[in-house]
């Protein structure tokens, strides 16, 4: 059984960049809905005792589990997204800053690329900062797809570009949402934690 994971902050802590109302609906309706649907679908399988990651990897390799994959992967993606954000203003640790300079040229270029990739993602999906072997790069996935299913990719941070992540606050202005999140809310310490696991 999959359980709701508590947010690492309150619904209002990311204000003014993400409102309390948006966080409430995003967590209590969308994320909780994916958790509930995943658990209902698991009742029809022999995967109930598996971890969320094991469920996703198994479901990704078998078309009979498409609906289960979509919901379980959305649970994982959302939990990763919650931890990718922080209300705390952070200085990027030197180890990560050096990698960013090597692979993107500067933090500003990394931020610009995250925003551009997020804008270019057609429809719903996700923007990821990943470690790909020895290099950092930015990639997007559509709908529930996740780098978790790709060998040698280690996700470090992600941005949710499904409309429910921003529409109450920014309406159709995805660029404004991405700009605010990229400049003010990314959890660089979480990225370093993930990088050390590579």
Report on this model:
The chain is of the alpha+beta class. It has 2 domains: 20-84, Helix Hairpins (Orthogonal Bundle); 94-195, 3-Layer(bab) Sandwich (minor pseudopilin epsh fold), CATH 3.55.40. It is built from 8 helices and 3 strands. It has a 3-stranded antiparallel sheet. Strand 1 (125-132) and strand 2 (135-142) form a beta hairpin. The chain is globular and about 50 Å long. 32% of the residues are buried.
In brief, what are we looking at here?
The chain is an alpha+beta fold.
Notable features of this structure?
198 residues; 2 domains; globular; 3 strands; 50% helix; minor pseudopilin epsh fold; alpha+beta
Identify the strand order in the major beta sheet: 2-1-3
Radius of gyration: 17 Å
Question: Mean of the pLDDT scores?
Answer: 96
- End-to-end Cα distance, whole Å, is 28 Å
Structurally, how many domains make up the residues? Answer: 2
Q: Could you describe the largest sheet, including whether it forms a barrel?
A: 3 strands, antiparallel
Task: Fill in the CATH topology of the largest domain.
Answer: minor pseudopilin epsh fold
Secondary-structure element sequence? Answer: HHHHHEEEHHH
Query: What is the name of the CATH class of the largest domain?
Result: Alpha Beta
Q: In which range does the helix fraction lie?
A: 40-55%
Within CATH, the superfamily of the largest domain carries the name: Iron/manganese superoxide dismutase, C-terminal domain
Content-based structural category: alpha+beta
How many beta-strand runs? 3
Instruction: Output the number of helix runs.
Output: 8
The shape is: globular
How much strand content do the residues show? 5-15%
């Amino acid at each position: 059984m999959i359980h709701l994971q508590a947010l690492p902050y309150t619904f209002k802590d990311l204000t003014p960049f993400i409102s309390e109302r948006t966080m409430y609906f995003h967590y209590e309706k969308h994320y909780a809905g994916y958790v509930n649907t995943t658990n209902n679908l698991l009742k029809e399988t022999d995967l109930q005792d598996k971890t969320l990651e094991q469920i996703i990897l198994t479901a990704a390799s078998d078309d009979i589990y498409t609906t289960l994959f979509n919901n379980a992967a959305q649970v994982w993606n959302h939990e990763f997204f919650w931890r990718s954000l922080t209300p705390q203003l952070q200085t990027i640790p030197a180890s990560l800053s050096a990698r960013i300079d090597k692979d993107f040229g500067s933090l500003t270029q990394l931020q610009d690329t995250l925003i551009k990739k997020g804008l270019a993602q057609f429809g719903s999906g996700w923007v990821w900062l990943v470690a790909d072997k020895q290099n950092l790069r930015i990639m997007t996935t559509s709908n529930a797809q996740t780098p978790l299913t790709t060998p040698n990719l280690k996700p470090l941070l992600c941005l949710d570009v499904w409309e429910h992540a921003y529409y109450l606050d920014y309406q159709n202005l995805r660029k404004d949402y991405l700009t605010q999140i990229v400049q003010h809310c990314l959890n660089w310490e979480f990225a370093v934690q993930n990088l050390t696991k590579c």
